[in-house]
């Protein structure tokens, strides 16, 4: 059981545990139409729901259910997005990745930078063999991000919880082979 999430850094970003002080930003990310265009989840409506979500996330971190980072610029501690590894397989060799980003920061390479850092953490530190990503079939930005990072579309795989999602996978062996 871990009490606090390991902070991850990149050239421009800090990935850190979310806190109650991030409530307004989490509410925005979980209710904004643009952010949630392709996401099949109930929208967060109130600060009370946001606090409950933050509690759920941080309790899940403590229970080793998932790892969930808030994304900030090093130059500004205000939360601009989130990225997580969750839905771990029983033997902790496969995990799913998820992410969202404030629309003001789209197209700046921020999510690519955060994704690369979390992929490296997942494969090197957590010793995962595979990371999966479920994304909406029409979400061109997410599909492009995944393909850019060597994820491969599993054409015959379906998301039983959302028929509009397609499934991409990245195996550690593919990552190593593609970086050689």
From TrEMBL:
N-acetyltransferase domain boundaries: 13-173
Gene3D superfamilies referenced in this protein's UniProt entry, alphabetically: 3.40.630.30
PANTHER family: GNAT FAMILY, PUTATIVE (AFU_ORTHOLOGUE AFUA_3G00765)-RELATED-RELATED, N-ACETYLTRANSFERASE DOMAIN-CONTAINING PROTEIN
Protein name (record): GNAT family N-acetyltransferase
Species whose genome carries this gene: Aquimarina gracilis
Phylogenetic placement of the source organism: Bacteria, Pseudomonadati, Bacteroidota, Flavobacteriia, Flavobacteriales
